[in-house]
Model the fold of this input.
Amino acid sequence: MTEALAELLDTLDLERIDTNIYRGQTPETRNKRVFGGQVFAQAMRAAQDTVSEERMVHSQHAYFLRPGDPSVPILFEVDGIRDGKSFTTRRVVASQRGKAIFNTELSFQVRESGLSHQADMPDCVGPEKLEDDSVLWARLKEATKKKSQDSSAANRTPLRPIEIRSVNPIDLINPVAREPQQLVWVKANGVIEDINGRADRPLHHAILAYASDFNLMGTALLPHAVNLASPKLQPASLDHCIWFHDEFRADEWLLYAMDSPRSSHARGLSRGSFYSRDGRLVASTIQEGLMRLHND
Done:
């Protein structure tokens, strides 16, 4: 296991401080805001701790309310709304300094069989022939450090806990308008140990939830020749949803196919689908993000 993945697992290992109340930390970072995928995944871990083992999360719907401060612990309070025969519902509110920064609802289900169909997996080159996106961000940092030492994009930490390899990489320095579609391969950067010979499914769900926040909002920017490194852009995740459909391992390559059907009113809507190497659609995501441009 890599040091970066071990740090992510520590971040997802919340401290239980009271009944249904958990405390989470943020790894040391130069960014001024907590990464949205971190809060999303930590809230999932808090809810998972209150649900019986045979029930797995199948959906999570969340809103980002305020920017998270990386220097302050985050408190997660879980509301056990309902425990039914087949489904369990939880609500989680994350707060800092007495104010809510994030809220989410999750639904868990006892596994059962039923009707099944899925969209086909896109045909594309495999991850073995692609360059890791952390190399692209390193080039961006080198190209922009003389222009802006304080830019969060220029100082962005390489995506080491999650390996990301773009099939058609974005030109981060000189972006050009293109169709709002992306294909990227993702996986945890290291092997996640099994428990008693079986995968820790809740942990794999949380890691994929964390990874689902990468690249998604940027898809809606592609037709406008703007990327997240632009100093004129004020980006922020407004909401985020994920659905889990089938078994997977977060430490094995998954194809993340993304598209954006619409942007308007300084908001962009993006959708994503995760496919396993054998072509199974294992999870889906949707996110709306703030894409506010400033003239100066």
Confidence is low (pLDDT under 50) at residues 148-157. The CA atoms of residues 192 and 251 lie 6 Å apart. The first strand starts at residue 15 and ends at 18. DSSP finds five helices and twelve strands in the chain.
